[in-house]
Amino acid sequence: MSKINDNVEKGALLYEGKAKKVFLTSDPGLVIIHYKDDATAFNGVKKGTITDKGKVNNRMTALIFTRLEREGIPTHLVRQLNEREQLCRKVEIVLLEVIGRNVVAGSASKRLGLPEGSEIDEPIYEICYKNDALGDPLINDSHALALKLATREELAQIYAYTDRINRILQKIFLDCGLRLIDFKFEFGRTVDGEIVLADEISPDTCRLWDSETNEKLDKDRFRRDLGGVESAYLEVIRRIEAELGSDNA
Ligand code: UDP
Predict the structure, then answer these.
(1) How many other CB atoms are found less than 10 A from the CB of residue 106?
(2) Are residues 219 and 121 both part of a single domain?
(3) Range of the structural domain that residue 183 is part of
(4) Which helix (H) or strand (E) holds 142?
(5) Mutate to test the pocket of ligand 1, among 169, 182, 202 (most ligand atoms within 8 A of CB)
(6) Which residue minimizes the CA distance to atom 21 of ligand 1?
């Protein structure tokens, strides 16, 4: 994807979300995504800013999506433009938040009655209905089909990509001294109806624990007022840059 449309121009604001802004461009098939420092938690109840989070999440997503493309996973990323922006294919977001868990934490710990950090032999995959007004409720495949959030074929594709991406990411992160505890992915549909990985992969959307100390290096430091939020994000991008930076995202 990196050769297309070298001279796109930034257009009007299309959408502003909690952590990102999306701009139209002179090419109707492309958008520019701008990463902000704004942070929210608990469905928007807790609000704040994390200095330079937008830069970390933009860079980390660009590096990881570039590596995933090399591994044969289609993504919406065209290329990183600058410290806070990336050029992406315009997609229709599938209204599902796909959550994967390699270790029990967060809401799964409460729901399953298992202490945070409990090991599981197989990853757990969950889907939530992406709907802020309803608080992104956990649903199952038959809900997704009944609500026409995705077709049966799309769901199968989404689960297959999610498992493959999880296995690729676990290895990358482990090489960085990080345990991928859990994560949230979002997928989009291209104009051709192709399912591609969209949104971001960052400490906002993954739980990442240091593999030696189990120190939390992700948004839980903000959610739970643990302090050292900025330095945790910077430590993650330092390690990912050292591991993937030579891919030249
Ligand atoms: N997550 C996310 N956005 C959401 C909900 C969850 O990125 O709206 C991520 C979260 O950072 C974690 C994983 O998905 O890595 C699982 O989150 P969980 O269901 O445990 O919810 P939480 O405890 O964060 O409310």
Answers:
(1) 15
(2) yes
(3) 93-229
(4) helix 141-146
(5) 182
(6) 107
